[in-house]
Design goal:
Order of helices and strands: HHEEEEEEEEEEEE
Strand content: 25-35%
Shape: elongated
Largest sheet: 5 strands, antiparallel
CATH topology: minor pseudopilin epsh fold
CATH architecture: 3-Layer(bab) Sandwich
Helix content: 25-40%
Number of helices: 2
Number of strands: 12
């Protein structure tokens, strides 16, 4: 009888308030340590996703130019942080699909990084200014990558360009999408203050 009573008492015994407090404290500390790392990781995914979307738009413009035997471009609004694919109709640039916005806290630019990606032309700069719908004058705070019907990046006059580039940053990392004179599109990544680009 005494043995059964001791077993019953042991089963009813729970955790003390001190033990529960320690577990809650450890959980709180681990959560506080994990949240900044998770936030940084998620921001990195957003920035990388935006760079991938821009890369896809550039590839689409290149294919669109060849398929329609005309010019096509990626029009980037540096102020509004948006980009779109346009096709030359013979008299004006017309929007293909819709305009896309960059993610929260992601902007066009390269921060304080001053080196150029390995495939670059030696200078870090966004692609040249876009021309307006009628193709008669430049538009401030824009950048354009234009392809001719052979998939070669060209400037406004139709002359092949050496290297075009588009950069996006979240303040921690910088992604660069370069387009060589051959039409080869490459993705690069570096830290905002680093000097080393890695191919993506």
């Amino acid at each position: 009888m005494a043995h059964i009573k001791a077993q019953t008492e042991n089963r009813q015994r729970g955790f003390s308030l001190i033990e529960i407090s320690i577990v809650v404290l450890i959980g709180t500390v681990l959560t506080a340590m994990a949240i900044p790392a998770l936030t940084t990781t998620l921001q990195g995914f957003r920035t990388g996703g935006d760079a991938s979307d821009i890369n896809s738009s550039i590839a689409l413009a290149k294919m669109r130019a060849a398929a329609d035997f005309t010019r096509a471009r990626v029009y980037i609004d540096l102020s509004a942080n948006t980009f779109e694919v346009d096709r030359w109709s013979g008299t004006a640039w017309t929007l293909e699909g819709g305009s896309q916005s960059l993610s929260h806290n992601v902007t066009f630019g390269y921060g304080s990084n001053v080196t150029t990606p390995p495939s670059g032309s030696g200078t870090v700069a966004q692609a040249p200014l876009c021309y307006n719908s009628g193709d008669t004058a430049t538009v401030a705070n824009t950048a354009c990558i234009v392809f001719n019907s052979r998939g070669i990046p060209v400037d406004h006059s139709g002359t092949a360009t050496a290297t075009d580039a588009v950069y996006v940053t979240d303040g921690t990392s910088v992604y660069g999408i370069t387009v060589l004179a051959t039409g080869l599109i490459q993705n690069w990544r570096t830290g905002a203050n680093a000097q080393h680009w890695s191919s993506r």
